[in-house]
Structure formats: structure tokens, C-alpha cells
Design a protein that fits this description.
476 residues, Aldehyde Dehydrogenase, Chain A, domain 1, 2 domains, Aldehyde Dehydrogenase, Chain A, domain 2, six-stranded mixed sheet, oxidoreductase, 18 strands, single chain, seven-stranded mixed sheet
Length: 476
Amino acid sequence: MSTAAFTAPQRELERLLSVQKAAHLATGPLSAETRIAWLDRLIGLMVDHQDDIVAALNEDFGNRSAVATLLADVFAVVGSLKYARENLRGWMQPEGFETQFPDAAARVEYQALGVVGILSPWNFPFNLIFAPLAGVVAAGNRAIIKPSEFTPASSELTRRMIAAAFDESEIAVVTGDAAVAAHFATLPFDHILFTGSTSVAKHVARAAAENLVPLTLELGGKSPVIVSGTAPVADAAARVMTVKTLNAGQICLAPDYVLLPEGKVPEFTAAAGAAVAAMFPTLKDNPDYTSIINQRHYDRLRAYLDDARAKGAAIVELNPAGEDFSQQEARRLPPTLVIDAPDDARIMQDEIFGPLLPIRTYRAIDEAIAYVNARPRPLALYYFGQDEAEERRVLDRTTSGGVTVNDAMSHAFAENLPFGGVGGSGTGAYHGKAGFLAFSHAKAVYRQSKAVEAEYFLRPPYGDAIRQFLAGAIAR
């Protein structure tokens, strides 16, 4: 395809990448003071535009809980940016290593990669742009951002915010449709962070491979909840439903199915219903309960229920006020338990990304572990229980991006813990120092010894000295 055939946003991407690469080379390493100043600007954007962020997300979703927005898309972001600001000087320090010769020196220096591309999703559009920028900027990089076309008001607000605080040679935003995102992945960035679905990640990875661009992929998958026979079921149900109803379950870390000990389904169902009623006495017009992002996703979720019902699952709608959702404009969907859906049901195959929660039972903990391990590795695993030996067994015998014990999603809010997936749920991690490292090049630097042995160690002709050295060194 010729350059003339590109759309205006695609040409703008090409231009911005050229501008930022040139600025990176011309300016050289950004000082700690400059990085802190950029982080301060980002913090200021979050603080000054918090009301605008609430309004934009409410417009995009049809209804988006204002408090949920402030918690997830503002408060959490400010925490990430402040943590990076407070710690980046320490992270930037070279790390020394021992050498064979006393007067040699070996160290690792952390060098900015250059220009990082951020492809962000629609579910938490500000969090999943500005929180990664904490690590990107702390590491001394520039960034170009492509927000989701599914949240146009939020994307346009992000563009205006960044343009008001940063020169285009520092951080820039390009908006546009899926074709722009596809072109984004073909460009020779120094690193790309993609957050989204596994299916789209495969396209991003294939495109990036043409330029050997390294990737951080933050995906999702079906994050399981294992409830032990030793767990207080009411507490587990309340904590699971808190996260499952946050953003109407449109969270990559949302519990995707629950594994309960046999006989515990009625107790869990009753406790889940009570938890939902306590949080949302009504749902249909409740400003705290978020809508499904668009009609396509709403129809997809309804189709999951129809498919599971047709395949024999019991459907339990948690609708405290018994409201009629058949006629509405806001695309609200009540929290719904799907009990004993078979494995071939679509709801058991796909990441749900909505307020629907399948429930299955197990007889022994190893059966639950085997069920998890028979599926792609999830972004998160949640274990509820009071048996430390059983907890250790679950941790040792399963692999997931992260784990929260006796709660859901809490590990993602611990800023000093790495956040990322494994296998089908992603590759690489960020948050805290992990973000600094993800967007840095660890450059090995070695200063050779002045000893005669160092000069002649590898140089032929090889004599008795090197042979004796090798004979002694190559030993058990």
C-alpha cells in the first residue's frame, strides 16, 4: 500500500512516530527531573479533569457509575503515577555485579526504549492509558496512544487532555477506527502495549512481528474462583459479586466462573442475591449500576444466556426489585447466575465480560484444580478458604497471571506487585517497578580488567596455562 492510500489518521501516526523517534535521539536520556515533571503533568490532568472523565464515560456507556469511574479511572491512576514519581530515582540507578577480575567492573544500566505505542481498550479507558504511562514515563520514554473507538467521548477527551499538557514530540494521541488500530500495530515502535481480547492480540502480535517490535499483551480469559469447603460462603459470595457487578462485570479481572464444593450452590446463590440486593436495591434506573457498553455486547451476553438455558443450565437472575428489563434504552443487564452450564455452552468457552456468572461444583480440591488446568491460563485466580495447606496446593498446582486469596481483584491494586498475564492471558507485566523494567532496556556494561590474564585469556596460541585453567574450571 502506498503512503497516499493511507487515511489521515494513519498518515498522522507515521508522522508522529517519526517526530518522537527524532526527539528521543536528539534529546538523549531524560533526567529524573524531567520524568517527574511529566508525571506531575499527568497527575494534574487526572485531578483537574475528573468531572470531565466522569461525564465522558457516562456518555459512552449510556450509564456509568460516577463513583466507579472515580475509583477505577481516576483514583487508581493517580496512585500509579504518584508511586512511579516517588520511586523512579531509585529504579534508575545502575545495578552492579561481581566480576572474575578484582579491578573489572560490571553493571546494568536501565535505558529508555524510545517510543512506546499504547493500544488501549474501552472498559477502563483512562486507567488503561494513564496507569501504563506511569511506567512508560518513569523509564524515560515517549508515547503514542490509540484509544478505543467504542468510547468516542472518552477518546476525544483523552486527546484534548494530552494535547493541552504535552508537546506532540513527548506524548500524543491519535483517534480513529479499527483500521487505524490495525495500522498502528504495523509501525516500528520500540515497544507496544496492547490491552484487549486474545483474538485481537493475535493480529497485533503478527503485525508487530514484521518489525520485531517487543510486546506487552494484557489480555483476559476466564478467571476462576475456587471456593474451599473451609470458606465462609456468604463472605465469598459478597466479595465475588462486588467485583462481578463493578462496571457490570466488564473487567478483564472479573470472576468468570465459580467452582463450589458439592452441596454449596443454594447457600452461595442466596448469599449472592443478598449481596446484590444490599448494593443495588434497584437496578434499572440506579446510577450506581453501569450499562453494557453497546448493543453488540448486550446482544452477545443475552445470547450466552439463551444458549446456556437451551443446554440445560439453570438461570438465576439477581433482580432485587423484580424490575422488567425487556423495554429499556440503557442496556442494563441484571447480575445473573448460570448454574451447571455444560462445557460446550458458549458462556463456558468465551470470556464473558459482563454480569453473568457460571457456577460449577466439585467433589475434591484436585478436581477443581484439574478443571482450571484443562483450560487456557487465566489472568487471575481467586481462592477462598481457611486451609493453608490447600491454599498452597492451589497456588503450586495452577498457573495464572496473579492471585488474590479471600477476595477478588485486590492484587491489581497493590502498586508494588507486577500486573500481567501468562500464556493465553497475556505476556509481560507492568505496575510499579515492573512497569519501569518492562519499558526499559537493561543494558549490560562491562569494563575490562587491566590484568595480563584478562588480555591474553582468549588469544591463541593456546598453551599450558589455559589448558590447566580449563581442566580445573570444568569440574563438578
